[in-house]
Amino acid sequence: MKRDESRGLIIGVTVGVVIGIFIAISALFCIKFRKSRSQIGNSSSRRNSTVPFRSSSTNTCAELSGSTVGPGSPKLSVEDGHGPALWMEGKKRKNTISVSGIPKYSYKDVQKATANFTALIGKGAFGPVYKAQMCTGEIVAVKVLANDSKQGEKEFHNEVLLLGRLHHRNLVNLVGYCAEKGQHMLIYVFMPNGSLSSHLYGENREALKWNQRVSIAIDVARGLEYLHDGAVPPVVHRDIKSANILLDRSMRARVADFGLSREEMVSRTSTSLRGTFGYLDPEYVSSRNFTKKSDVYSYGVLVFELIAGRNPQHGLMEYVELAAINTEGRSGWEEVADSQLEGSFDLEELNDMAALAYKCVNRVSRKRPSMRDVVQALSRIVKMSRSRKHHSKKFSVEGSGDLDARSEARSSISENTNHQRSESVDSVSDLPEV
Ligand SMILES: Nc1ncnc2c1ncn2[C@@H]1O[C@H](COP(=O)(O)OP(=O)(O)OP(=O)(O)O)[C@@H](O)[C@H]1O
Ligand SMILES: [Mg+2]
Fold first, then answer.
1. Which residue, 129, 275, 312, 387, is the most exposed by fewest CB within 10 angstroms?
2. Considering the entire predicted model, what is its pTM?
3. Distance CA 32, CA 159 (A)
């Protein structure tokens, strides 16, 4: 009997131990599985958190919708054929290890695409720029960081990290990069119509029409508005100038060159002056403190450059200041109009744009409008000019005057206008009203 009891005990203990081991193994598996799931979850949420775009752009800023979210997103801009998603397709997939989602290319691939670095487009402070055709058939611009360049590795990494996060239809988007054999290269969307400066000052170029100049001013304003108000954290460009505005096939403008860009949060001050003579905010020159409003100043100079067709490095702003003495309210700016326009421009539109640009170049940065204010004001100016054209058509058809109504509208705008540089433009209400 005792023997039976002890046998039962042994069997019981053995079964218990087996069950225990089984439960322990199952628990271990469970823990491992849950851990790996949470890791996947973490990495995807990390990825989402690096997307710098406000999910709900304000409706006052129509063009913030022109932004596209980072690589991997279904919303990625493939519409213009330059979205990184396109680049990640095909047999070169193994090369697409990337910093912040930007495809990385091997030196060999880039060498082949540029026909051994022979198709030179131009050379800037960063280094030479080559035209290239990638294996996908895509035409791109490859910017090679020169070894003797004043701009160095820091700018390179800054640009890759920065542009990896920024996508907008009015920015020259980065579509790839190469860091190999001591060489650093940035691969951009190719802009077939080159730089704005080449159109304003290049020989054998047809003069830009007034409407093209207006649309370029709007495109640049939208690109900058996105950098200032759409990107999180905000980005200041620091080198807005006509050489850094590039034009696509249909002459739509995009802001290029983020080599001098800095996230405002990271570096608000620097010891040496950066940017381009002629476009530099006087307040930045004296304080060495570069802000969004310094970009606004450069933008104002750029708008005057578009109106006058004069190089800021050759006395544009002195010319503007002289003209400002004679401008009454909002009128009189036609005096600075580019002679190449041959008088073909909408006079009121030109005056409104110049008045807005003059606010942007106010010596006191606080009194300059924000880029969002500028975009809104430009939209109103264009809307107003369209409605004037529509009315004048109607007027000529009906043969009766709504002239009074139109002049009334003009005078209400003029009442809001004051070319004095001391005027505050911090609020939207100070800007041209429709
Ligand atoms: N994505 C692009 N598509 C077409 N042409 C480009 C592109 N990027 C640059 N270029 C052209 O290459 C040339 C050199 O450009 P780069 O930006 O290096 O110099 P820059 O703008 O003249 O001066 P900086 O170095 O001060 O910016 C310019 O003529 C420019 O128009
Ligand atoms: Mg440039």
1. 387
2. 0.72
3. 39
